[in-house]
Amino acid sequence: MAVIHELSTVLADQIAAGEVIERPASVVKELVENAIDAKSHEIDILVEDAGLKTIQVIDDGVGIAADEVQLAFRRHATSKIGDRKDLFRVQSLGFRGEALPSIASIADVVMVTSTGGEGQQLHIAGGDVVDQKPAEARRGTAITVKDLFYNVPARLKYLKSLNTELSKIVDIVDRLAFGHPEISMSLTHNGRELLRTAGRDDLRQVIGSIYGMNKVGKMLPIDASDADFKVSGYVSLPELTRSGRSYMSILLNGRYIKNYQLTKAIVAGYGSKLMVGRYPLAVINFTMDPLLVDVNVHPTKQEVRISKEDQLAALTTQAIQSALAPQNLIPDGLTNL
Ligand code: ADP
Ligand code: MG
């Protein structure tokens, strides 16, 4: 008898899920990223019991055609890249074709979608299609995920308290909203609205709805560019700081990423203006040719490789230095003396 055999599709999907879907917040991230890629103007996120009971993401994007509804849930099925060249110039947030099959392999999923005409409803649970039928729907997609990790008890056990899981959801939605001020996003937990952005393409306003307008009043715009990069966004005055680095958000072509060198470059821009152990608030968009970024480093795509990273770090530090230069720090009331 043969010793080696190919794994079943569902098993392969569950293994992929182990990398991509760590906790409820990962589901929220993947579904909202799909909604962003679908060119939505409005994305509503409804969560119950920190996502363990229900995660629902409703968008008004392009929708999925009836004959592709099941294909969307197959591993490595994607509309976002075609050939090898595309992999080196990824413009979308997704491209691996792994999120939907991963989620469906470890939860109960209902998707209602329409490209404009009659809609379709697909029910898929534990990786198996339960049914697909026509459904009334406006253009866009609504995905409801229930019973996350029901068949992965080890993962379920590893989850933290509901409060911690909810804070991770809030955190990821905040960053997605920072990356896309042109989209109106809302987050509702157990019927209570926690966040709503206006979708007016005004980053200052989005930061205001997340950190509070009083904080935005203490942040300065930054703007710098060179031949390869553009750096823009808001950074706090040296008087407004936090004890952790997590209030510095780095967005690369609209994707929230973690990057130690850029975080260091932000802090370096403050020089000796920060007290030891204190960090600024910052929301910074780094815009560049996708050819300069390799996003195919990690399944969650939160780590990327940037060519000419030193050059970008230097530009970032300079942008902050000039925003914080003494002539820009004069309080409003004094400028017209
Ligand atoms: P990826 O995002 O990497 O392509 P996913 O598994 O997340 O992979 O999604 C598979 C495909 O399903 C996408 O490429 C897209 O065509 C389609 N899709 C998923 N979510 C949506 C959505 N909200 N609106 C429209 N199409 C979607
Ligand atoms: Mg995706």
UniProtKB/TrEMBL annotation:
Top-level taxonomic group: Bacteria
User: Per the UniProt entry, what is one GO biological process?
Assistant: mismatch repair
Q: Which GO terms describe its molecular function?
A: ATP binding; ATP hydrolysis activity; ATP-dependent DNA damage sensor activity; mismatched DNA binding
Keywords, comma-separated and alphabetical: DNA damage, DNA repair
Give residue ranges for domain DNA mismatch repair protein S5: 207-325
Gene Ontology cellular component list? mismatch repair complex
Q: What does this protein do?
A: This protein is involved in the repair of mismatches in DNA. It is required for dam-dependent methyl-directed DNA mismatch repair. May act as a 'molecular matchmaker', a protein that promotes the formation of a stable complex between two or more DNA-binding proteins in an ATP-dependent manner without itself being part of a final effector complex.
Family statement: Belongs to the DNA mismatch repair MutL/HexB family.
Q: What is this protein called?
A: DNA mismatch repair protein MutL
Q: What organism is this sequence from?
A: Secundilactobacillus similis DSM 23365 = JCM 2765
Q: Which gene encodes it?
A: mutL
